[in-house]
């Protein structure tokens, strides 16, 4: 393709760079989201996205170099609602945080901890009325040898 043919489709070199950047930047965001969708947990989603970044660079370092070096000049031209790789990562993190906070069933305020301790003391007579509610054995309700411990 000749230089003249390029300028028939694009009015300037800047417009050509913009069109290439916009198409690939938005497309890359979609690929990252697709990678994240294939995983179940937030850590796995982020690991897949990071691997996607690395794979994109390994497959074509020159293109990746252009992509990231030209992004500083081109980002301001993107539509506000355009999907971007940065927004894709932010969205996965935000969903992970929301999912984790919705799973919390037990309040963590000091008053709630005191109430749990009082409830545990009255329900565990073999350990002297106090069951550990912290540490690696927190979910293990088997009796412990030796004198009862206090929290």
Based on DSSP secondary structure assignment, what is the total number of beta strands? Answer: 0
Mean pLDDT: 75
The biggest sheet, with number of strands, parallel, antiparallel or mixed sense and barrel status, is:
none
The helix fraction, in percent, is 55-70%
Q: Report the portion of residues in β strands.
A: under 5%
Unreliable parts: 126-140
Give the helices and strands as they follow along the chain.
Answer: HHHHHH
Number of helices: 6
Task: Give the N-to-C terminal Cα separation.
Answer: 77 Å
Rg, please?
27 Å
Helix/strand/pairing class, anyone?
mainly alpha
Provide a descriptive summary of the structure in words.
Helices cover 64% and strands 0% of the residues. It is mainly alpha-helical. It has a domain at 3-103.
Question: Layout of SSEs?
Answer:
Blueprint: H1 3-9, H2 13-37, H3 42-59, H4 61-74, H5 85-103, H6 110-123
Helix pairs in contact: 2-3, 2-4, 2-5, 3-4, 3-5
């Amino acid at each position: 393709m000749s230089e003249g043919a390029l300028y028939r489709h694009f009015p300037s070199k800047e417009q050509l760079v913009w069109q290439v950047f916009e198409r690939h930047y938005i497309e890359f965001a979609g690929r990252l989201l697709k990678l994240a969708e294939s995983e179940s947990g937030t850590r796995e989603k982020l690991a897949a996205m990071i691997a996607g970044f690395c794979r994109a660079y390994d497959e074509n370092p020159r293109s990746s170099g252009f992509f990231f070096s030209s992004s500083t000049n081109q980002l301001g031209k993107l539509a506000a609602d355009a999907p971007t790789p940065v927004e894709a990562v932010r969205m996965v993190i935000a969903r992970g945080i929301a999912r984790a906070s919705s799973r919390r069933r037990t309040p963590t305020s000091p008053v709630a901890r005191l109430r749990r301790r009082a409830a545990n003391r009255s329900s565990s007579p073999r350990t002297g009325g106090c069951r550990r509610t912290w540490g690696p054995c927190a979910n293990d309700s088997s009796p412990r040898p030796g004198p009862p411990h206090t929290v």
